[in-house]
Amino acid sequence: MVSSDQRRRQLAREKFERQRQRREETRKKARRRNAIIAAALAVVVVAGAAAYASVGLFDGDGDKKTDGTSSADSAAGSPSPDASTGGEPAMTVDKSAKYTMTLKTDHGDVAVAMDPAKTPHTVNSFKHLADKKFFDGTKCHRLTTQGIFVLQCGDPQGTGSGGPGYTVPDENLGALGKAGTDGRVTFKAGTVAMANTGQPNSGGSQFFLVYQDTRLAPTYTPFGTMDAAGLAAVREVAKGGVEGGAGDGAPKKAVTIEKATVTTS
Q: Same structural domain for residues 109 and 236?
């Protein structure tokens, strides 16, 4: 006869195996999404004109927890998906208030003004993740200096393939105006926007900081604006260039988000 204690252990093992299988399937899907970040990364010179090869601004799903453990370790303290909302955290922000996300980095603080009236799901997710210390100790893993001009952050793994385990819907996509004949709009310097997988409504935790006006497809949620000091800090990182002298890759001046907070006023 199986004791109640043995039965509990058996159920726990079965639950862990189901979770392991789901994580493995997520990793397989992520590996099938080739490039990690989007929009015009390689410069191709044709007939004396510069054309940009578009590959996408991606945010994959990874399995690293917010406390730095692997998926096989305890998930205590991690920002678990909310079953009542299909994974996205339950809405708790005040849509009539103003929110500021402050990224304390080893190159200076970056304050991002956010408006939940325009991007409620995005702001709510960032507050949820910041409150869970999801971003603390993470690296900004990608800098682009040719074609597009952004610093990308928000991956707990620091590889470009990590995420929070849930997605948020696209928001505010019309804020930057009508697309031009190239199918793009201008993300002005100081804009902070969501990365995604190249598919609609697939944003997770990764975001990019625009340090110079950049033309991109209007498919990335613009949810915030950097303050002057933050923009200056990002530009200093960009001046250092990319490791290996390429136009896309890890920044030579490695950037760590030491602490992220979201406050309201």
A: yes
Cβ–Cβ < 8 Å for 41, 216 = no
- Residue 49 structural domain: 33-264
Q: 24 and 109: one domain?
A: no
Radius of gyration of the chain (CA): 19
Residues 214, 207 contacting (CB under 8 angstroms): no
Asked if 187 and 173 count as a contact pair (C-beta separation under 8 A), the reply is: no
State how far the Cα of 19 lies from the Cα of 6, in Å rounded to an integer: 20
> Looking at the structure, do residues 7 and 91 belong to the same domain, yes or no?
no
pTM more than 0.90: no
Amino acid occupying residue 174: G
Report d(CA 202, CA 224) in Å as an integer. 18
User: Distance between CA 229 and CA 193 in Å, rounded?
Assistant: 18
State which residues of the chain have pLDDT below 70.
1-10, 12, 15-17, 19-86
Q: Looking at the structure, do residues 18 and 84 belong to the same domain, yes or no?
A: no
Are the C-beta atoms of residues 142 and 37 closer than 8 Å to each other? yes
Question: Are 88 and 101 contained in the same domain?
Answer: yes
Tokens of 56: 């996408």
pLDDT tens digits, one per residue of 87-129: 899 999 999 999 999 999 999 999 999 999 999 999 999 999 9
Q: Which amino acid is at 68?
A: G
> Is residue 11 domain-shared with residue 68, that is, in the same domain?
no
